[in-house]
Amino acid sequence: MANPSTVQMRRIVLSELCACFASKSHMTKQEMLNITDWKTYEGIVNLTEEGYYTIYVKALDTADNTYYVNSELIVLDLNPPVATITMNDKKFSSFRDNLSNINIAEETKINITVEDKFSEVKELKYYISNIFLTEEELKNLDASLWKENAEITLNTKGTYVINVKTTDEFDHTAYFNTDY
């Protein structure tokens, strides 16, 4: 560690030239030096497409020194995880309010898979009802009624609606259901 009395500090005064570049992949220093399409910084840059980004900034001070800075990895995740509920040969991957009848005459295994393209799935829960519930009713359902498991076995004849709630690490939540 340097002796504090020997460390020289200098103030950097930026000129009007400051540019930025958003990349969907991490670049080496040499790749960054080879960028030819820097965008002049004119204010806040809005990222609107989901993905992984690194923001690179190129700044020139009044002494014509060039500085490069980059951000940490930025994850822009705008959508909740997508669940697929598989029951026999049928798959359900949406929340519907117009349900059809499915007859269950024998023990039936139901499997739930969840995918989120840009973040981790924080929560996968299910609730079995015998009637259709709206998304609002599911949102207001007592938290203790939701179960955690990706595989369900139905072994009693009856009418069932499997409701699934998924949440990612950015707290985007979505609901899915099966026919009954």
Q: What's the alpha carbon Rg, rounded to whole Å?
A: 26 Å
Mean pLDDT: 83
Structural class: mainly beta
Assembly status: single chain
Q: What overall form do the CA principal axes indicate?
A: elongated
Outline the low-pLDDT stretches. 1-15
Number of DSSP-assigned strands: 12
- Kindly, what is the distance between the CA atoms of the first and last residues, rounded to a whole number of angstroms? 69 Å
Helix proportion of residues, in percent? Answer: under 10%
Please indicate the percent range of residues in DSSP E strands (runs of 2 or more): 35-45%
The number of helical runs is 2
Give a short account of the largest sheet.
5 strands, antiparallel
What is the chain-wise order of helices and strands? EHEEEEEEEEHEEE
Describe the structure.
The structure is a single chain. This protein has helices at about 30-35, 135-140, and strands at about 15-25, 40, 50-60, 65-70, 75, 80-85, 90, 110-115, 120-130, 150-155, 160-170, 175. With about 180 residues, it is mainly β. The radius of gyration is 26 Å and the shape is elongated. Mean pLDDT is about 85; it is low at about 1-15.
